Each structure stands twice: as structure tokens, then as C-alpha cells.
Amino acid sequence: MRIALVQFASDIDAAANRHTIAAALADLDGASVDLVVLPEAAMHDFGSADHDLSAAAEPLDGPFVALLAEQARRLDATIVAGMFERTDGLPYNTLVVVNADGELVTTYRKIHLYDSFGYRESERLRPGDIVPATFTVGDTTVGLMTCYDLRFPELARTLMDGRAVPDVLLVPAAWVAGERKLEHWRTLLTARAVENTVFVAAAAQGGDRYTGHSLVVDPWGSIVDEAHDADAVVLADLDPQVVARSREVNPSLANRRMRST
């Protein structure tokens, strides 16, 4: 499976973001990708702490998902991207998955809100129910996590205990920059890959506010490719045989005596 991670810094102008995304995806023409991953909040940035995300939120049949459907059909690829989903109250921080036919096949509403490092995401957004989400691209099972979820290994473990064990974990993110934050980012992504013997692919926002460094980690813990903090596209081929071999050599999932509940 060929994956493309699209790194960019979103704006609080949703129409401008759609234009940016369309232009970035146009550059993937001829790349023969199977899966395209955009960052958390690709539809609309978080903005300042007093910015009204409820007013910015869109329904799942709004212009953002319509753009993804159009681009997915054009690229003949599945697209995953982050948005703020409209509700009657506070919106959800939602990942949407649109397949190559332009169909919305699943959503994941961020479970762990970023009430940390002096910020309170829960004042602006509502947490999703504890319902881990997976989908398939061809024969590959993919699990979903969003940004701050990365700090909670039990979510990744719960995904691994589902009916279909993922070969890949996706982590769209807007990982806020700061002291030691890049070290946390790389370390946690690598840990989730090694302990679950999966590929981990993380599409992050870049720019001045966020850490950037979208990257792919293989099941052995090696970084396959990594961006810096500017706009970028990371392309990688994820071979399921690498996952199978790592689980044969390092059968830590099979050797567990404690399971998530």
C-alpha cells in the first residue's frame, strides 16, 4: 500500500484550506497512492483560544467532505482528514474516511481531548464515545487515532484487540510546538509502532504553531521517512510482509498475558 502524508498549516478560513488541499492533492497525480492522510483540523485550524469552533464546524455532508470525495474519486484513493463536526452543542474533533468511490465509510471522533500543557480542548470541543475505529484499504486494516490520543497506549492496544488487527495506525495531528514536544512526538510514535508491531503513519500540521515532522515508522521502530516543519508530502510504501515478519520475530502481541477491556 502506498501512502501519502500531506503536511500543511491550516487557516481559520475554511475555503482557503479547501483550495490549499486541492492544490496539494493535485501534486499527487501520477503517484499511484492508495491512501492519503491529511492532518487533524485540516478543514479549519483551532485558531486562538477564544475562536468559536462551533460556528466553524461543518456537517458530514458539508463542503469539506464533498471536496474530499471529489479528490478521492479523482485520485482513486482513500482519503483521511480531520475536521470539526457540527452538533447541537460543542462540535466533535472528527476524522473522516472517504474511499476511492467518494463514499464516507467511517468517522472517528477524538476520544482524548487536549487538556494539557496549559490548554483545555474540552472547553471548545466534546469528546467522542469510546469507540475505536478501523477501516480497510484493499487487504490492509488501518486503525485511527488523533494527536493527543498518542499519549494513551491503551487506545492503540484496544485497536489491536479488535476483530481485525491493524497493520497500520494513522495519527493525524496538530501537535503544538514547544520545549521537548518534538522529542515526545517521535518517541511516542515509535513506541506505538514497536509495542504493537505495526506501521505508524502520522500526518501533522506544520508552520510556526505546530511541530510538523509528519513521519512513517515501521514495526521495528525505524523511521522510514520524515518531513520537517514546512509544507511537505511524505510518500511511503507499506509492505504487509514487514508487519508479518516483525510479529514472527517479536511476537509480543501473542505473548501478552493482560488484555485491554
Can I get a quick summary?
By secondary structure, this protein is α/β, with parallel strands linked by helices. The chain contains 7 helices and 14 strands.
Describe the structure.
The structure is a single chain. By secondary structure, this protein is of the alpha/beta class. The chain has a single domain (2-255), classed as Carbon-nitrogen hydrolase (Nitrilase/N-carbamoyl-D-aminoacid amidohydrolase). It contains 7 helices and 14 strands. The protein has helices spanning 14-26, 53-56, 63-75, 153-160, 181-196, 240-249, 252-255; strands at residues 2-7, 35-37, 78-85, 92-98, 104-109, 115-116, 119-120, 134-137, 140-144, 168-170, 199-202, 215-217, 223-226, 232-237. A 6-stranded mixed β-sheet has the order 5-4-3-2-1-14. The chain has a 6-stranded mixed β-sheet with strand order 8-9-10-11-12-13, with helices on one face. Strands 6-7 form a two-stranded antiparallel ribbon. A hairpin with a 5-residue loop joins strand 12 (215-217) and strand 13. Helix 1 (14-26) runs parallel beside helix 3 (63-75). The longest helix has 16 residues, at 181-196. The chain is globular, with a radius of gyration of 17 Å. The model has no long low-confidence stretch (mean pLDDT 97).
